[in-house]
Amino acid sequence: MVNRITVIGAGNMGGALVKGWMKAGMASELTVTAHTQQTLDRIVEACPGITAMLDNSKAVQDSDVVVLAVKPWLVENIIAEIKPELKDKLLISVAAGVRHERIDVYAMPNIAAEFGESMTFVEESYKAAVAAELFGRVGQCKVVPQRLMDAGMMMAGCGIAYVMRFLRAMMEGGVEMGFYPAEAKEIAMQTMQGAVALLRETGLHPEAAIDKVTTPGGITIKGLNELDHAAFNSAVIRCLKAGLK
Ligand SMILES: NC(=O)c1ccc[n+]([C@@H]2O[C@H](COP(=O)([O-])OP(=O)(O)OC[C@H]3O[C@@H](n4cnc5c(N)ncnc54)[C@H](OP(=O)(O)O)[C@@H]3O)[C@@H](O)[C@H]2O)c1
Question: Which CATH class is domain 5-145?
Fold first, then answer.
């Protein structure tokens, strides 16, 4: 059973995990570290009840699980720094593309963890279940073989950025047609939310959902065909594969 979690690195990803776990009622079980006091002050203000400190070794002492959420190039030094206190504690890393013999579980969450909406991938290992349970508290979590971790990162970790680009494109189209940016943003977000709800509720394939809004000879098909002329599908597939080694 997990009693205490230490998150090393309270930046975009570590901070989102801490905020998500806090919202899941785990504040008193969380310790977080950062490089600067300024970052710690920010996270403590956002997450009352958590423990925050600059000393990584001390932060690890009383934990059962340690989550490394620092930039990839810092992982090796930080493991060396906390090693005397690590002992048999579960060490999870969310750092992209870094492998280390001491890391027990590799995980790839995304920053929607802050709102309980992460899509997290945990690499199969004999300790994956504990990590999957923890990440399951801040969204959906899938345990996958190592060969799918990079694909998961591209679709869900980086995917947040790609979805933002699609939303921005919709907004810009909306503004060109006469909406104020704030209105266009709301319209684009609600439309995306509606599309996701439609798929979730009905279980439809996206193309079957498209048939529901596409009248033969109508205006929707004109827009869909423009996307095809601009190689939208191909662009998205190439975008997802661009980061694969
Ligand atoms: N951002 C994402 O969407 C995302 C998604 C999945 C995985 N990841 C992975 O998450 C890791 C962190 O990325 P990020 O975007 O969160 O970076 P970030 O915003 O720069 O956060 C890194 C954090 O590490 C802290 N830090 C630096 N040196 C430290 C030290 N010696 N001891 C303790 N903490 C230290 C920094 O503290 P200060 O703020 O005080 O400098 C900062 O809060 C990366 O390895 C990345 O691959 C990120």
Answer: alpha beta
